[in-house]
UniProtKB/TrEMBL annotation:
Comp. bias intervals (Low complexity): 226-239
Spans annotated as Disordered: 1-66, 213-254
Phylogenetic classification of the source organism: Bacteria, Bacillati, Actinomycetota, Actinomycetes, Micrococcales
Biased composition (Basic and acidic residues): 243-254
Pfam family, any one: DUF3710
Protein name in UniProt: DUF3710 domain-containing protein
């Protein structure tokens, strides 16, 4: 089952997206960076980390036997039983901008971005996410996880009835050949080891199709609806999950 919904950003997603947008604004102001995605960065992290992708996520040049995968343009995703897949659509442009996978209350949202040929960008993105979280009065912790360096965040929020709470998320990132894949684990996928492991397996089976067209670093790689999608009636979303709201229709892969 998968569907697509109107994009309503939650605060967890806005943290990472704000960092990417700020970085993209800097790139847009620099004609050299837009003209050549191999240009040297203006600031380089002192220590580089690299995750071994031998067991995924994969590049299209590295993975065969994907005929049964859902083709979402820049992402090929293996179908998994009992896992709902939703495409997040931006209202203004009607472009698909993210993929959300959910099993019970475990949620994983993914996006793929362009990256330079010569280096990865996860080290820089982590610093920007951390800065953004702290600017919102939140807490951020960098840990060594099964996908390399990860960020665990808590952002204070006030519920509609006036109670104080926090939005929690785990940010992960994997650098590939000229691409960067970002994942955000929320719900039980953030706090429960078993739920996290199950969603992480899905993350590792993903295949990124970068394409040959030149793109500025950090531009979102284009996503699209798969050919198998057929619209059907809307399904209410579980109110306990702090994720983007489901839109007026969903689609099912048959």
């Amino acid at each position: 089952m998968f569907g697509f919904g109107r994009k309503k950003k939650n605060e967890d997603a806005e943290v990472q997206e704000t960092a990417v947008e700020q970085a993209q604004a800097e790139i847009n102001d620099d004609p050299d960076m837009r003209a050549d995605d191999t240009a040297a960065p203006t600031a380089v992290a002192e220590e580089r980390t690299e995750f071994d992708r031998a067991n995924g996520p994969y590049d299209t040049e590295e993975k065969s036997g994907t005929d049964s995968y859902l083709d979402l343009g820049s992402l090929l995703i293996k179908p998994h039983p009992e896992v709902a897949l939703r495409l997040e659509v931006e209202d203004n442009t009607q472009n698909v901008i993210a993929v959300t996978l959910q099993k019970d209350k475990a949620v994983l949202q993914v996006q793929a971005f362009a990256a330079p040929k010569s280096r990865g960008i996860w080290d820089e993105i982590r610093s920007e996410i951390a800065e953004s979280v702290r600017a919102q009065g939140g807490n951020i912790e960098e840990v060594d996880g099964s996908l390399g360096k990860e960020l665990k965040s808590q952002i204070p929020v006030t519920t509609p009835d006036g109670r104080k709470g926090a939005r929690v998320a785990t940010f992960v990132g994997v650098d590939g050949p000229r691409w960067f894949l970002r994942g955000v684990f929320t719900g039980t996928a953030h706090a429960d080891a078993s739920a996290r492991a199950e969603m992480e397996k899905i993350f590792k089976t993903m295949v990124v199709h970068r394409g040959e067209d030149p793109m500025p670093p950090r531009d979102l790689l284009p996503l699209s609806m798969p050919a198998q999608a057929q619209p059907e009636a809307a399904t209410p979303q579980n109110a306990d999950l702090e994720m983007p709201e489901r839109g007026p229709e969903i689609a099912e892969v048959r």
